[in-house]
Amino acid sequence: MPAHSRPGFPKAPPPRGPNSPRIPSFYRPRPSATPPLTGPRLRSALPARKIVGLLSELRPQQMFLRAVSSGLTSLFRTPGLAAVTAMSTGTFVQLDPLNYRDGARVEPVDSSGTEKAFEPATGRVIATLQCSGETEVHLAVKSAKAAFEIWRKKSGMERGQVLLEAARLIKEQKDAIATMETINNGKSIFEARLDIDTSWQCLEYYAGLAASMAGEHVQLPNGSFGYTRREPLGVCVGIGAWNYPFQIACWKSAPALACGNAMIFKPSPFTPVSALLLAEIYTKAGAPPGLFNVVQGGAATGQFLCQHRDVAKVSFTGSVPTGMKIMEMSAKGIKPVTLELGGKSPLIIFSDCDLEDAVKGALVANFLTQGQVCCNGTRVFVQKEIIDKFTKEVVKQTQNIRIGDPLLEDTRMGPLINGPHLERVLGFIKSAKEEGATVLYGGEPYEPTDPKLKHGYYMTPCILTNCRDDMTCVREEIFGPVMSILPFKTEAEVLERANDTTFGLAAGVFTRDIQRAHRVAADLQAGTCYINNYNVSPVELPFGGYKKSGEEVGMHKPATVASAATPVFLSL
Ligand SMILES: NC(=O)c1ccc[n+]([C@@H]2O[C@H](COP(=O)([O-])OP(=O)(O)OC[C@H]3O[C@@H](n4cnc5c(N)ncnc54)[C@H](O)[C@@H]3O)[C@@H](O)[C@H]2O)c1
Ligand SMILES: O=CCc1c[nH]cn1
């Protein structure tokens, strides 16, 4: 009987089978008496017992939130974060230190400059962060090394218990964390809540794996035997992008911690706030102080981290140009690196599709998080027979997407991350027009009627037609709400065009022909291929890329998500 179905067994993550596809590469398979064996074999076992008693060791949380609009200063504590959920757009200011070291928020001891973080909905500054200098980075590494010495000696089961408790705390504080994410990132609260769900699911998943990661026993001649051990690497660095701040921090830390490593996480300077909530949660869940440290800053801080001699691995999410620099720095230190980079993914819509679903799929593939999603399917190839019908419907639905205050329940599109990025996206639309594309809808700056949103970074979602494969808007990652529609005739033709890119993060196919769906998915050079859906990222599946979209260990493990559900619908 599987452990989780035993009577009286606490609610636990689902068991994972052997050769689970997301076995993280935060482990060093270490040969003992025999040469290393390849191909990890994991048995499923669940660290499902809840930790009772860890809560008594909690440090008091300190989070100062000032309600600017009312002129009042209030002090709230993070447990429950009740005050945050009650906040409205235009009221939040972060006054607490934004670094986290040895289990507490700290100001960095040295700084390489300051950065301002904004509330994209209003254009207000919500935090000014000190970019950590070399000494602060060194202190963070030192603290993480000390925590690693404690953590690496724990059993997988013990590590899983801490992760499970952290997952429970995230779930408990979901609305508050989502509110914070919306305030700092601009994505709608509707989406932010989905992100927080995938975040705690990620921790639960790795909690489930932690106890079952084991080496191998190898029988040798004449009664001899050898065995391999799986050992953590040490202090790992996570560097994140701004589009999924909390989720990325979880995606990076959960596998690292499950395997026995410590992590120093550097969020994007645009979204410094929510990683601190995760740090506090890990501490509260029983992680030793220093196990998950946060340092703030931009490129310089990132470089100090990557170049530190005591950092064993770098896991990076961000753009291709930065990914190249990270790989170069890591190569110099002979450090393993995981790169999760950008994309320009194709979405292929065959004439036999369920048109209603395909339209929803195209919306979700292009306009989630204001189009600022790495795996978005922005090259929408539509078979000629249905292109007019599809285009008409997709425009109609796009017009219905509610843009505005991201904290309102019925908003589906908030602002872009900041002013320069909005200008960059509008620049792509301008050059698309110059190159001969037609703007069928949107692509303009947008000013919501609410006066407090006047200085926010809003634009209308954009649909381009008359596009050619060689146009800039079709070749380059725009990272904004811009869909390019491209006609095609045959399967062979569209496959060739879809794969004609330097990226390879994701792809999608809409068709009722099941054989074609899997044939096309297999031939698409993409880390993930969605069938009759888009932008669902189950934690059980790998999330990697072909070509410049980045890769884990130099081999392809493409995932196909054949979804039985209909795509999330963005228009109301
Ligand atoms: N594949 C994925 O899973 C995934 C997920 C989210 C975002 N992305 C990609 O991220 C990009 C957008 O994010 P971004 O604008 O934050 O990317 P970015 O490359 O500008 O920055 C990413 C992070 O790297 C840091 N950084 C910048 N220069 C550095 C340097 N020289 N050394 C060390 N660190 C440095 C930044 O401060 C930030 O924390 C898009 O291309 C998007 O597709 C990919
Ligand atoms: O930007 C991409 C990160 C992602 C994709 N799906 C969920 N998160």
From TrEMBL:
Record region (Disordered): 1-42
Catalytic residues in the record: 340
Protein name: 4-trimethylaminobutyraldehyde dehydrogenase
Compartments reported by the entry: Cytoplasm, Cytosol
Family the UniProt entry places it in: Belongs to the aldehyde dehydrogenase family.
Job description of the protein: Converts gamma-trimethylaminobutyraldehyde into gamma-butyrobetaine with high efficiency (in vitro). Can catalyze the irreversible oxidation of a broad range of aldehydes to the corresponding acids in an NAD-dependent reaction, but with low efficiency. Catalyzes the oxidation of aldehydes arising from biogenic amines and polyamines.
EC number: 1.2.1.19, 1.2.1.3, 1.2.1.46, 1.2.1.47
Keywords assigned: Cytoplasm, NAD, Oxidoreductase
Acetylation is among the record's keywords: no
Positions of the Aldehyde dehydrogenase domain: 113-551
Main localization (coarse): cytoplasm
Molecular functions (GO terms): 4-trimethylammoniobutyraldehyde dehydrogenase activity; aminobutyraldehyde dehydrogenase (NAD+) activity; formaldehyde dehydrogenase (NAD+) activity
One matching Pfam family: Aldedh
Pathway this chain belongs to: Amine and polyamine biosynthesis; carnitine biosynthesis
The keyword Cytoplasm is annotated on this UniProt entry: yes
Subunit structure: Homotetramer.
GO cellular component: cytosol
Catalytic activity entry: formaldehyde + NAD(+) + H2O = formate + NADH + 2 H(+); butanal + NAD(+) + H2O = butanoate + NADH + 2 H(+); hexanal + NAD(+) + H2O = hexanoate + NADH + 2 H(+); acrolein + NAD(+) + H2O = acrylate + NADH + 2 H(+)
